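Suppose you are handed a protein chain with no further information: no name, no annotation, nothing but its sequence. What can you learn? This example shows the usual starting point.
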Amino acid sequence: MKVAIIGTGNMASGLANTLAGAQHEVIIGSRDPAKAAALAEKIGHGAQGGGIEAATQLADVVILAIPYGGVAEAIKAAGSLSGKVLVDITNPISADYKSLVIGHTTSSAEEIQALAPTASVVKAFNTIFAQLLPTEARQGKTLQVFVASDDAAAKAQVSVLAQSIGFDAVDAGPLSNSRFIEPIGEMNIHFGYFLGKGTVVAPAWVQV
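A reasonable first move is to predict its three-dimensional structure. Written in structure tokens, the prediction is:
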């Protein structure tokens, strides 16, 4: 699968490295193309790096792996997103990581869909810390990724992508359910950073 990763931070690097290692065609996009190219060279496995628009246009699936505050700028820089599957992994959190800045009546995923109406937005990966993206960090554990979207085909495509790197993709319903998934991501941040669990925890829905 051709996947564009927008961003060069911890989540972007982790996803790009893991997806490239699973034989996906990875293109990293950044407002600093040189930084994206350097990351791609470090990752290897045929990964490419450049500007945001160039990466977006080469891919079928585009993953927004940047802070929520930078999303609008990235979408504007991406050019046409018509027909693209746009994966929102963000949690719209405050600067101190302790609260959500939007929620209840909307979500970052829904706001992104409004900014990119011709794309199919999928919520996924927002409950997974970057430290758990490498497959070797999950030996003996299958972690869940909650996948929500109004587009069934896009949801299925992202679910296959998650499964290809060893995650259990859980159908989390329509995109509006991101209003519930994002608080779960924030609670996981509290467990990881403020309640002593560290960044090696992840939520799971257990069926008994």
